[in-house]
Write a structure and sequence with these properties.
single chain, 167 residues, 60s Ribosomal Protein L30, Chain: A, 5-stranded mixed β-sheet
Length: 167
């Protein structure tokens, strides 16, 4: 049985073969999921705010896009992942409160995508925007990423083309 590791707002967590990283109830936040399928290690971050954390956010810096991405890279490379093999899947940034003047979602998308581009990390797949809550899960063994929108059934977002099977 696979172990499920829940990733809440502002958290960055790493998983290995036999584990599933999952984040639920995603509104305006953006969740980033990355996996080195050969090394069987993955990482997920649940980003709440754009940019870099102010000094006053001590202990909560990974709520911010730049700090969360730095932490993701640090944690997954410490577990042996090859940074050149990484690409991310993005889910979230939904205006679930349906506010007319909401800019948080767009700011989160812009911040995360800009930071990934600066670090030369490609986006493999994304489900961003809309007005429904989302969830994401990543099966580290297969490298597959799934998502939900609203109350609909889970769908495949991305699947590793080069699955490595070990008997």
């Amino acid at each position: 049985m696979e172990k499920i590791i829940n990733v809440s707002t502002g958290e960055v967590k790493v998983g290995r073969k036999g584990e599933i990283l999952r984040s639920t109830a995603i509104g305006s936040c953006v969740v980033l999921a990355a996996c080195d399928c050969e090394k069987k290690v993955g990482v997920m971050a649940h980003v709440m705010l754009p940019g870099r954390a102010p000094k006053s956010a001590y202990g909560e810096s990974t709520k911010y896009a730049a700090d969360a991405l730095d932490e993701m890279i640090s944690r997954i490379t410490l577990k042996g992942a090859n940074l050149c093999e990484l690409g991310v899947c993005l889910v979230g940034a939904g205006n679930v409160l349906k506010k007319q003047d909401d800019t948080v979602c767009d700011n989160n998308i812009e911040s995360v995508t800009r930071l990934l581009k600066e670090k030369h990390i490609p986006v493999r797949a994304a489900v961003l925007g809309g007005t429904e809550r989302k969830s994401i899960s990543m099966d580290i063994e297969s490298g597959s990423v799934y998502y939900t929108e609203g109350d609909r059934q889970e769908k495949l977002l991305w699947e590793s083309a080069g699955k490595i099977t070990q008997n």
